[in-house]
Design a protein that fits this description.
By secondary structure, the chain is of the alpha/beta class. It has a single domain, classed as Metal-dependent hydrolases (TIM Barrel). A hairpin with a 3-residue loop joins strand 2 and strand 3. The mean pLDDT is 96.
């Protein structure tokens, strides 16, 4: 049982929440101590690494990533791949399969895979390696058979990709536009074909002007869901505010790399070498290359931007859960998984529970 100020689907209450693996009861009690804030655990749909390890390494990398991010309030996540040659992607997926099948001790629940690449536009790679290929249903099915793909990023303007979108959507995969040089019209056509969202909005896609709205314009004009990196490095505050007004269920992701939780220095991002300095990660060229963001910091950044705490929480828990169709996560309600983050007055995690099990925060 926990006591505090609790965010429920109906709004804030002061009271107690009782749980085992799932939430049993939430009771209002005005006399309860309201010094602590109790939120649904965060759900990160785009995370590459932490603590010096990268998902693309395979093996136990996914378990380490799940453990590090759990200490920052992330209770569920998608292990995210990078563009690479097929054997490297298969190795990463094989490593993730074990973590998906069995939650690592002291770690977040790995819900599946975000396949970010290799179906990208060579001219909008950002920090992705250049090993792009044209997507095919057979190739996606081969990947999906190893570890369940929940989200797939692609450039819809590549020949053959638009026609593939409905088939991928029929498999239950959320197809997202990202690393794309496509036009506004190509973005709208992809949405009409079954695209569900946009990958790290603004980054890795054609920008918007009043004469040429580009892929960003398609997102701002038409999207219900899109992910964005709220580290205040990838997107300026004004652009973030515009997206918050335009896209009803804009949600935050970390796009965290192996440099997350590590000192400044050189790290790996797939086959690329990246450099952490001044709170961000860059290639040797100076281009941004993922982030060192954690979801608790994302919450604080949203609040500092002016969002009320409930709205900020929804954009890190409820909306990503709903996007995946995870109706028993991302909310504090009887019957839902007991994925809970408890915050102090500075919005710092003091307790985290994944499916009712307390996470050891001592090594954060």
């Amino acid at each position: 049982m926990l006591s505090g100020r609790i965010l429920t689907p109906s709004g804030w209450i002061t009271g107690t929440i009782t749980f085992d693996q799932r939430i049993v009861q939430i009771q209002e009690d005005p006399a309860a101590d309201s010094a602590l804030t109790i939120l649904p655990g965060f759900i990160d749909l785009h995370v590459h690494g932490a603590a010096g390890v990268d998902i693309m390494e395979g093996g136990n990398a996914g378990a380490t990533v799940a453990q590090v991010h759990a200490r920052h309030g992330t209770t569920a996540l998608l292990g995210t791949t990078l563009t690479a040659k097929e054997p490297s992607i298969l190795r990463a997926l094989q490593g993730l399969a074990g973590v998906i099948a069995e939650r690592p001790a002291n770690g977040a629940r790995m819900l599946g895979v975000h396949l970010e690449g290799p179906f990208l536009n060579l001219h909008r790679l950002g920090a992705q390696p250049p090993d792009v290929v044209q997507a095919s249903l057979a190739l996606v099915q081969r990947f999906h058979a190893i570890a369940p793909i929940k989200v797939l990023t692609m450039a819809p303007e590549i020949p053959g990709h638009l026609e593939l979108i409905p088939q991928l959507a029929a498999m239950g995969i959320r197809v997202q536009i990202g690393h794309s040089a496509g036009t506004y019209d190509e973005g709208v056509a992809a949405l009409n074909a079954g695209v569900s969202g946009f990958t790290h909005l603004y980054n890795g896609m054609t920008g918007m002007t009043h004469y040429d709205p580009g892929m960003v314009g398609a997102a701002l004009a038409h999207a219900e869901y899109a992910e964005i990196i709220p580290d205040l490095q990838h997107v300026a505050k004004g652009a973030l505010r515009a997206a918050l007004r335009a896209i009803p269920r804009l949600y935050g992701v970390t796009d965290a790399t192996s440099a997350t939780g590590m000192p400044d220095g050189e790290y790996g991002l797939g086959t690329q070498r990246v450099y952490k300095c001044l709170g961000c990660v860059r290639l040797a060229t100076g281009s941004l290359a993922g982030s060192v963001l954690t979801m608790d910091q994302a919450l604080r950044n949203f609040v500092d931007l002016g969002l009320d705490l409930a709205d900020a929480s929804n954009r890190l828990s409820l909306y990503p859960a709903d996007y995946l169709g995870e109706s028993e996560r991302g909310r504090l309600a009887p019957g839902a998984w007991a994925d809970i983050v408890v915050l102090d007055s500075q919005l710092q995690p003091v307790s985290v529970f994944v499916e009712g099990t307390a996470i050891d925060l001592s090594t954060r």
